[in-house]
Amino acid sequence: MKAPTQSSPTRMGDGVEIESAPKPLVSRDDPAGNRLLAALSPADRALVRPNLEFVPLEVRQILERPGEPISHAHFVESGLVSMIGVNQTNHRIEVGMVGYEGVTGLGVVLGAERSTNEALVQSSGTALRISTLALREVMATSPTFTDTLLRYVHVFLVQANHTAVAAGCGKIHERLARGLLMWHDRVRDDQLSVTHDFLALLLGVQRPGVTVALHELEGEGLIRSTRNMVRILDRSGLQRAANGYYGGPEAAYDHLIGGALVRPRSYPM
After folding, report:
1. What DSSP string describes 117-141?
2. How many CB atoms lie within 10 A of CB 111?
3. Does a structural domain hold residue 40?
4. Does residue 148 form part of some domain?
5. What is the pLDDT of residues 234-262, one digit of tens each?
């Protein structure tokens, strides 16, 4: 894999810049720990692999900002990235999630240069990033690689559509159940490190509404909640509590992309 020549600054949510030196991905024959990359043909994986860099994802790290150029796309291997819609008066709500099943930088895939949303890391993890220039070069070389990315864009739009339907029609506890299931899918851990502030952002409601919804799901024995943690106790029960607002985008992904159910990887330090 291509190693970066120097460390690059990463902007955090509070405006602080830290130096993070991306680690080159060690050479392996098996697919990466990202389900979208795992769904590629061996030829397409071989084509994209030299352009990937292993990078950590830190909580509150901002990968994209609205109106700013997209420098890299990130194939997430672990952790969770929230796509946040922001308007001119700084109202904010989550419009989609990206975990190990997907990639950020969808504007680049569609031919744009600037992001329309904020890409905010909500759960720490790792990613394989590719520069915008390299991504466009690989897309120009391989129609099948481009086709896979476009199918993922379609799946993400399905997710955004279902998010809008849930926000407009669902009760808060139903939307919370859906959000926790989606988080659980991507983090792949029953214990979710999540604050009430983020849950309020996810649902587009005030914190008291989140507290009431958490207590409702707790009362049904589906979760256990503390200040900064939610533990999933009954996933099947959560799916019933979501009342049909969960499952559509997930089925669309399986149908259009598929791919192996990859596991998180350990990298040498």
Report:
1. SEEEEEEEEEEEEEEHHHHHHHHHH
2. 8
3. yes
4. no
5. 999 999 999 999 999 999 999 999 865 55
Pairing of strands 118-131, 53-57: antiparallel
Spatial CB neighbours of 204, under 8 Å, sequence gap ≥ 6: 93, 94, 167
Instruction: Convert the pLDDT of each residue in 165-197 to its tens digit.
Output: 999 999 999 999 999 999 999 998 999 988 888
Count of domains forming the chain: 2
Which residue from 154, 42, 145, 50 is spatially nearest to 96, judged by alpha carbons? 154
Phi, psi (degrees; rounded to nearest 5) at 13: -65, -25
Domain that holds residue 109: 8-143
CB neighbour class for 234 (10 Å; exposed up to 12, middle 13-18, buried from 19):
middle
Phi, then psi, of 104 in degrees rounded to 5:
-90, 180
Phi-psi region at 159: left, alpha or beta (left = phi > 0; alpha = psi -120 to 50): alpha
Residue pointed to by tokens 């596991």: 263
pTM of the model: 0.84
100 shares its domain with 227: no
Q: Hey, how many other C-beta atoms are within 10 angstroms of the C-beta on 246?
A: 23
